[in-house]
Amino acid sequence: QVRLVESGGGLVQAGGSLRLSCVASGLTGSSNSMAWFRQAPGKEREFVAALRAYYPDSVKGRFTISRDNAKNTLYLQMNSLKPEDTAVYYCAAYTGAFSSVTYYYRRQSYNYWGQGTQVTVSS
User: What would you report as the CA-atom Rg of the chain, rounded to the nearest whole angstrom?
Assistant: First the structure.
C-alpha cells in the first residue's frame, strides 16, 4: 500500500524560506511520477512543482523540487515566500511514467495523495 506523509509546513514571514518533505512508502519500481500541489481556502488545488523541473510561473525561480531516492523522500524548497503562497501543500504520486508533460500539471493524473501540510506566510 502506498503512503505519502508530508511535513515541514509552518508559519513564516514574507521573504522567508521553508523546506517541505514527503516520505513515500510502498512505491515500487523507478518509473513513479511525483509532484507537489497546493490548495488555498476557496480555491482549487493547483500544481506547484514536478520532478524534471516543471514549475508554473507563480513559483518559478523561487521553488525547487528534489528527491532523495535512498530516503524515499521528495522535497520542496521554497524561498522568497509570499503571502499568496499560503495554502495546504500536498505531495502526489502516480505509479507510472507520464507520456506527456501535460499530465504532470493535472491533479487527476495522480492516484496517491498525502494528507497535506499547512504553509502560512505572513506579510
Answer: 14
Q: What is the pLDDT of residues 80-89, one digit of tens each?
A: 999 999 999 9
Strand partners, 6: 22
Residues 37 and 35: their CA atoms lie apart, in Å, by 7
53 burial level (CB within 10 Å; 0-12, 13-18, 19+): exposed
- Paired with 121 in beta bridges are 12
Cell numbers that stand for 53 in this block:
523541473
Which residue, among 87, 79, 90, has the nearest Cα to 14 in the 3D structure? 79
Q: Kindly report, residue by residue over 5-26, the tens digit of the pLDDT.
A: 999 999 999 999 999 999 999 8
> b/e for 24-34, b at 16 or more Cβ within 10 A?
beebeeeebbb
Question: What is the 3-state composition of the chain as percent helix, strand, coil, each rounded to the nearest 5?
Answer: 10, 45, 40
What are the residues facing 85 on neighbouring strands?
A: none
State the residue for C-alpha cell 507537489.
36
Residue 108 φ then ψ, to 5°: -70, -15
Grid coordinates standing for 62? Answer: 523561487
